[in-house]
Design brief:
Blueprint (H helix, E strand, L loop, with lengths): L4 E4 L3 H13 L3 E7 L6 H5 L2 E6 L10 H11 L3 E3 L9 H9 L3 E2 L4 H8 L1 H10 L7 E5 L2 H11 L3 E5 L9 E3 L5 H16 L4 E5 L5 E9 L5 E13 L2 E7 L6 H18 L3 E9 L6 E7 L6 H8 L3 H9 L16 E8 L1 E2 L5 E2 L2 E3 L1 E3 L5 E4 L5 E3 L6 E9 L2 H13 L2 E3 L5 H9 L1 H4 L24 H12 L23 E7 L8 E8 L5 E9 L6 H6 L6 E14 L4 E8 L2 E9 L5 E5 L2 E8 L6 H5 L3 E3 L4 E6 L6 E2 L4 E7 L2 E6 L4 E4 L8 E2 L4 E7 L9
Parallel strand pairs: 1-2, 1-4, 2-3, 4-5
Antiparallel strand pairs: 6-9, 7-8, 7-9, 10-11, 10-13, 11-12, 12-15, 13-14, 15-22, 16-17, 18-21, 19-23, 20-22, 24-25, 24-31, 25-26, 26-27, 27-28, 28-29, 29-30, 30-31, 32-39, 33-35, 33-38, 34-37, 35-36, 37-39
């Protein structure tokens, strides 16, 4: 069972994480990569790398035959599946062993047993583990409805064959159940290849607590404390911490004993996690599922225990005993992790693709990622692109450290949830440790409390970088003539903040020399975009002028090819240094603490913009695959009727009718891969009274 060459059957930061430990243990590593990942850092970090197929995951990272062939070609004797794709696929684990290789994980029998939520629940009940009331084996909407009425609303639907929030729906009344059941089945089949759904009572205002376990082949079965994963959105974890602020020593021991008992009952080996729901009284807990793999959030457990979980996985896989016992496991301090995702919080958290033009990880904390400046964020894989993990003596100190780290992270060129994560950490309920699974669901996530406007420094920087140049000088920096501009007139342009769909405010900026030597003066006047005609423009209402005086300007370009730089200046005596990046569309990205804002220079104003906004064109919001089409050409639809369902980065996005009318120009079919902005269909608006085209 000993091996000296290990293939990591995964990508990105997962592969980087395993490579780091394997290298320290003296184990040679082999990376695999798809077409989309040819330039990924994990390819260069490994000793060897093998190409395994096209960009689509099911043709590369989920292709068991290609992965086993890569082992044979590279001389790898073992496969580590990471914590996604094939890590909980019993067929893959069995195929690896049948090929004479070592699978770093539990046996195929155990994976199969725990991989199906329904079977896992029955097994845990037989072992005396407390479970949430529910039902399995419901194959029709009628059976689900009967079970729900017996359990009592609200209920939760779950994909029996997988997790990660996919295939999960909370249903609060009987009328919602048929459609929710259909959606859950569709998403489960797409994500896991099985549409089996289980139903359980929805325990609200509870906590999502998971217990880390380690077991070897020599009878040792340990728990390494718990993680609190209650900060979730749509069942997707966003913030995880260890230990849980809701778990005391007695409860920790009780949950740990149940976890060890469950592992012993099924003959578990390796690293794994048992997930529980802790109810509102923080006294009763219920088994939800077992993940027979390393978890995304394993790093917080490593930080508080000092135990490298990947190292223990590799030791167990080689038949070695764990080098410590239960009494040796100590929890020190507090650790918190946030998941940085390529998604836009202000557009319904839609996944984002593009080029990460400027990336810089913060110092002083652990950052797990495979990002680099210029990296392509593609639609083929998960939207999570990095994890930021902080550790400190106390929870309060850890939170402060991570809040600052969010500000010191630079991520420009692709929209992310970084600013949203920082506001989650700063929320009073999180600060006091009172977060439950319904925390984010109770918040107005798209409201003003979660959205920040650009600061005066950011707006001034945008005025300098966009308003004072005629397109830049190759580096994207203001050309020198700006500094010698006419003091009486300066330069005047219109600048628009396009960070979110609602951010349509436009400013006229005039940049000139002030009377003080070496000082620039920016006058900004907000107004609605002017009409095309000069007379209409001059007649437009004017807002009061805001004046900024900027001194000691420094603007440096670090990479002209990427058109990225930093700009530092004093505004009213306060110095700020901001990172910025100009993308291929000439939009200016500015990092303002943990938020990034996007500005564009407005040269033409389209008077027909409002008319277009009322139009019925339905376009793909990003690169995505069509997985369902409900509309037919000529069909009459009501506003917000579901017409098409898209999938990108493992997320389903229903596309709704933009207005009431008749479907025209339907040009997509199931399976089509769409580009961002591609026309899906048009809905011709109809007059409500006559039924004729409006």
């Amino acid at each position: 069972m000993r091996f000296d060459t290990l293939l990591i059957a995964n990508r990105g930061e997962i592969a980087m994480r395993v490579i780091r430990t394997a290298r320290r243990m003296g184990i040679r590593t082999v990376a695999v990569y798809s077409d989309a990942d040819a330039d990924s850092p994990h390819v260069r970090a490994a000793h060897l790398a093998v190409h395994i197929g096209p960009s689509a995951a099911d043709q590369s990272y989920r292709n068991a035959d290609a992965l086993i062939d890569a082992c044979q070609r590279s001389g790898a004797q073992a496969i580590h599946p990471g914590y996604g794709f094939l890590s909980e696929n019993a067929g893959f684990a069995r195929a690896v062993v049948d090929a004479g290789l070592v699978f770093v994980g539990p046996s195929a029998r155990v994976i199969s047993l725990m991989g199906n939520k329904a079977e896992a629940k029955r097994t845990m009940q037989a072992a005396g583990v407390p479970t949430v009331p529910g039902a399995q084996g419901c194959a029709t909407a009628e059976q689900i409805l009967a079970a729900a009425q017996q359990i009592g609303f609200p209920v939760i639907l779950k994909a029996a064959a997988g997790g990660g929030g996919r295939g999960m729906r909370v249903v609060r009344e009987a009328a919602e159940l048929p459609e929710m059941f259909r959606q859950a089945q569709s998403e489960a089949a797409s994500a896991f290849g099985s549409d089996e759904i289980i139903i359980e009572r929805a325990i609200e205002a509870g906590r999502h607590i998971e217990v880390q376990v380690l077991c070897d082949e020599h009878g040792s079965c340990l728990h390494l404390g718990e993680r609190d994963c209650s900060t979730q959105r749509r069942f997707q974890k966003l913030v995880e911490e260890a230990p849980s602020p809701a778990v005391n020593a007695a409860l920790r021991e009780a949950m740990g004993d149940v976890a060890r008992k469950a592992c012993s009952a099924i003959g578990y080996t390796g690293a794994g996690t048992l997930e529980f729901l802790l109810d509102a009284d923080q006294q009763h807990f219920y088994f939800m599922e077992m993940n027979t793999r390393l978890q995304v959030e394993h790093g917080v457990t490593e930080l508080v225990t000092g135990i490298d979980l990947v190292e223990q996985q590799l030791r167990v896989a080689q038949g070695l005993p764990l080098a410590f016992g239960q009494d040796d496991v100590k929890l020190t301090g507090h650790a918190i992790e946030v998941r940085l995702c390529a998604e836009d919080p202000w557009q319904g958290y839609l996944p984002q693709v593009g080029v990460m033009g400027e990336w810089q990880a913060p110092e002083g904390i652990r950052t797990d990622s495979a990002l680099q400046s210029g990296a392509a964020i593609t639609p083929f894989y998960d939207s999570m692109i990095a994890k930021l993990l902080a550790h400190a003596d106390s929870r309060a100190a850890c939170t402060r450290r991570l809040l600052l780290a969010c500000e010191e992270t630079t991520a420009l060129g692709v929209r992310t949830n970084l600013g949203f994560l920082q506001r989650c950490l700063a929320h009073p309920r999180f600060v006091t440790g009172e977060v439950t699974t319904d925390f984010l669901g109770q918040q107005d996530l798209d409201g003003a409390a979660w959205r920040h406007a650009p600061s005066e420094h950011a707006r001034a920087a945008a005025a300098l970088l966009l308003g004072a140049s005629d397109g830049g000088n190759g580096s994207g920096m203001p050309p020198r003539p700006m500094l010698a501009s006419d003091r009486s007139t300066g330069r005047s342009v219109w600048i628009r903040d396009v960070t979110s769909p609602a951010a349509t405010s436009t400013s006229e900026c005039v940049v000139r020399h002030a009377e003080s030597p070496g000082t620039l003066e920016i006058q900004s006047r907000s107004a609605t975009p002017p009409a095309r005609s000069r007379s209409a423009r001059e007649a437009a209402p004017r807002e009061p002028v805001q004046t900024w005086r900027i001194g000691h300007l420094r603007c440096t370009a670090e990479d002209a090819a990427r058109r990225s730089a930093s700009i530092a200046f004093s505004l009213d005596g306060i110095w700020r240094s901001l990172r910025w990046y100009r993308d291929a569309q000439a939009r200016l990205w500015i990092q303002d603490r943990a938020d990034s804002f996007v500005f564009e220079r407005v040269t033409n104003f389209d008077a027909t913009g409002d008319a277009q906004a009322r139009g019925g064109a339905l376009k793909a919001p990003m690169s995505a695959r069509v997985i369902a089409v409900f509309a037919k050409a000529g069909q009459q639809v009501a506003k917000d009727d579901p017409l098409v369902v898209l999938e990108s980065m493992k997320m389903e996005m229903p596309m709704l009718a933009p207005c009431a009318g008749r479907v025209e120009k339907l040009g997509v079919s199931v399976g089509d891969q769409l580009n961002a902005g591609q026309l899906i269909l048009e809905v011709v608006a109809l007059d409500a009274a006559t039924g004729e085209q409006a």
